[in-house]
Prior knowledge:
Elements: H1 4-15, H2 22-28, H3 31-41, H4 44-64, H5 69-86
Amino acid sequence: MDEPSFLKTFKSEWAQLSGFSLQKKLKLIKGPPREWNRNVFGHIDKKISSFQDALSKLEEEAQTNTLEEHDWLRMDALRTWLWLWMA
């Protein structure tokens, strides 16, 4: 609900249901938010897992080898993305 595009999408879909009873609107409104969620967020668990895996690999490599600057920058970026998706 905090995602700005959700309210816009919901209002648009709700407006298209004018003329239906409230009960019918509530049944029909389920699909569009699910589709919106899938398009905007995708599979959050899979994304979080992929960030964790990539970060773990870099951290393991850092323990045995000297990382280059771009690897350290990538680790920082992965931590940021991981934090954002977990939030």
